[in-house]
Structures are given as structure tokens and as C-alpha cells.
Amino acid sequence: MTGNLRDRLKRIQNLKKTETAVDILAAALKTRTPENSSFADLTSLTEKGWIPCGFQVLKREVLIDFPTKNFKKMPAALPIIIPDLAKKASCCINDFIFFDLETTGLSGGAGTVAFLAAFGQFSPDGKLRVTQYLLLDYPGENDFLEAVLVNFKIERSVIVSYNGKSFDSNILKTRCLMNGIKPPEYTHADLLHPARRLWKNIITDCSQSSIETQILGLDRKGDMPGSLAPDIWFEFLKTGGTDWLMGICDHNIRDITGLASILCAMFSIAEDPFKAEKYNINFERLALRWRDIIRKSDRYLQLTNEGDGYEQYEELQLTGNNLLKYAADKGYKRAVYVYSFDQMRKGNYHEALDFARRGLKLFGEDTIWHEKLLRRIERLEKKI
Predict the structure, then answer these.
(1) 3-state SS string over 204-269?
(2) Residue 233 CA to chain centroid, in angstroms?
(3) How far apart are the first and last CA of the chain?
(4) Rounded to whole angstroms, how far apart are CA atoms 115 and 171?
């Protein structure tokens, strides 16, 4: 079987240069497309920028105007928000590659196949370049994977996904192993858990579409639901019709664009959390995480360049303290309690007492926090 597939691929690759892209697509689809399928569908693929890049595999590139500033360097605080970047201090936003798959199911089993892959990367002029790979039928999966894996070999790059560690990367690994291909090794930043830390309890759920529409204000009206992807691809295999399939391809591009928007929002939050109120973040969760992580100074000193590491650490520490105070001033219960505790340890007894009394009003009398604050207030009054 493998030899036959290779022979077919060789014949396709040796087609005369005078033949059009439609001719090549017709040859690529010949073994699968029903006799009564519309040839106009093949023409529509070329009109939308698709070109062959292997046996039963198409590729296209889409350039998107993206309204964001081009960060020259990753903010030092970004690993606080995205822990996967703890060892990537020298990244700029152009080093990130946004990755998303559309598959034939939601399970990670051997029967689930990825039929569409998209990769997005910012160009130097700030535009977002999206490259898509489309599998036309099962026999082309080996070529599909080989084309996709090229994108994981870019030096210095960081693959960015949303729930990709649990789903997309596992699907890719499984399909590679089943085709006798070594799975790729890469730095992977999954934005799902960082998003939950920033927006859990702020919006109804932390799905990518909810973050995009409810937090970033992106318009996804008219978008093809990703849940329909399996049925649409199977229907394409039966009929050769491409209208619905192109809808899923466009959905795939919008996922990449949304993913890039979420990362840019996290860049802005890390750069200056006090100017990030427009993102409606959970300041208490961010402040407490910032405090806990920054206290592990060794982890952050290794992120900085030699010579200015301690200065950068002090700046992060100051920002974390101000952020915690900001959350406490906003009346977040845990932030009030922790900020009072920190000020007591630093010897700022008057400020510690002030916030302990605020916390006493916020916590109910039946809670353990109420009793702790009463004891703290008693100790602070004695010290003062």
C-alpha cells in the first residue's frame, strides 16, 4: 500500500508545469472524488488560495491585518501569567507560533484524525500570517504530517495553543506514532490555564470563544461552530462539496486570530497590570499569584539578563506589592488578609492594622478568617 501511495505522489509531482493548479487538484482527488462531484468545487479551492503540497494535501497562506503593537521583548512578568515561558526570557512576540487543529472527533484515541492544521506568526510589520494545511483523504495523512511538522522546527519559536497540551499535542503525537514519524519536540505555551487564572468567576466559562467575545470584544458572529468539523469533513469525503469545508477552514483562521489576541492581552497585562482594567481581570487572583511566584526569587533571577537581574527582580517585587495593595483597596477579601499579613511582617503596623480592620468587616463572623483577624488586630494594637 505504501509503495502505491508513493507512486501516486510521484506521478502528481511530475505533472507538466503547464498544467494548472486545478488540474493538479483534480489528479490529487481522482482516487476519491465521486464521478458526479462538481468540478467547480475544485476551482473554488484554487480561487481561495489553496495549492497542493503533497499527496492529498493542500496548503494556503492568509495575511491578516492585526491591530496590536509589536512588543520588542517579552515582559519580565509574563512568566508569572504564563508559567510555560519560565525559561524563555529573550522572546519577542514574533517568536510565537499560534497552533490549532481541527479533527474528526474530541477524543484522543487512535481513531481521531487531524484533517486541518493552522499556524500563525507575526511578521515584522505587525501583520499575522496564517498558514493552513488541509488533508483531503486518509491516504494523504503521512504527507499532511510531514508538511505540518516543518512548522515545529523553527529555531527560537514557542508554540502557542489553547488547551493544546491536553488535546492538539496529543492528537499530533498519536498520529505521528501511527505513521512511523518521530513526534516533534518544542516549547509549548498553553493559554488555557493562564486564562482561567485571569478570568475565572469573571465570565460564565473560560472557553476560547468566551474569552474572545466577553473579554476582548471580538466579533465571531457568523462563525462556523468548531463542533461541526467532524461531520463536515466526513460529508466532504462523501460528496466532494467544499462550501461547508471552507467554513471550517475560515473558523480555523479565526481561532488563530483569537489566540493571537489573547496572547497580546496577556503581554499587555504583564507589561502594566494597572492599565489592564479594560480586560476585566480577576485582580485578586493575579495579585496573589504574583506575590507567591515572585517570592521564589531564584526562578525569576534566572529569567533576566546578566547584570540587571536583581534590578529587574526588585521592580517585579515592587509591582507585585502595589498590585496586592490595589486588590486590597478594591475590597477583595483574600487580598486584604494577605496584604495586612505582609505589612505586619515588614513592620508597617499601622497599615497592617488598617487593613486587618477592613478585613474584619468583609469576612463573616462565622468564618475562620474572622477569628484570625481578631487575633491579628489584638497583636498589632499591642505592638503599636
Answers:
(1) CCCCHHHHHHHHCCCCCCCCCCHHHHHHHHHHHHHHCCCHHHHHHHHHHHHHHHHHHHHHHHHHHH
(2) 24
(3) 85
(4) 11
Contacts of 262 (CB under 8 A, 6+ apart): 162, 191, 195, 208, 211, 212, 216
- What burial class does residue 120 get, using C-beta atoms within 10 Å of its C-beta: 0-12 exposed, 13-18 middle, 19+ buried? buried
Instruction: Report the alpha-carbon distance of residue 251 to residue 257 in Å, rounded.
Output: 10
**Cell numbers that stand for 341 in this block:** 499579613
Please name the helix (run of DSSP H) or strand (run of DSSP E) that holds residue 307, with its range, or none.
none
Q: Could you read off the pLDDT of 124-141 as tens digits, one per residue?
A: 887 899 999 999 999 999
In sequence order, what are the beta bridge partners of 63? 129
H or E segment at 108? none
Residue 340 and residue 327: Cα distance in Å, rounded? Answer: 12
Q: Which long-range contacts (CB under 8 A, 24 or more apart) does 224-227 make?
A: 224/248, 224/250, 224/251, 225/251, 226/102, 226/251, 226/255
Contact 212, 262 (CB under 8 A): yes
Residue 351: is it exposed, middle or buried by C-beta count within 10 angstroms (0-12/13-18/19+)? middle
Q: Is the pLDDT confidence value at 33 over 60?
A: no
C-alpha dist (Å) from residue 100 to 140, 148, 306, 328, 366: 19, 11, 36, 38, 48
pTM of the model: 0.85
The DSSP-derived string for 310-377 is: HHHHHHHHHHHHHHHHHHHHTT-HHHHHHHHHHHHHTT-HHHHHHHHHHHHHHS-TTSHHHHHHHHHH
CA distance 334 to 373: 12
User: How far apart, in whole angstroms, are the C-alpha atoms of residue 97 and residue 200?
Assistant: 25
pLDDT tens profile 276-308: 888 999 999 999 999 988 887 555 555 444 445
Cβ neighbors of 169 (< 8 A, separation 6 or more) are 161, 188
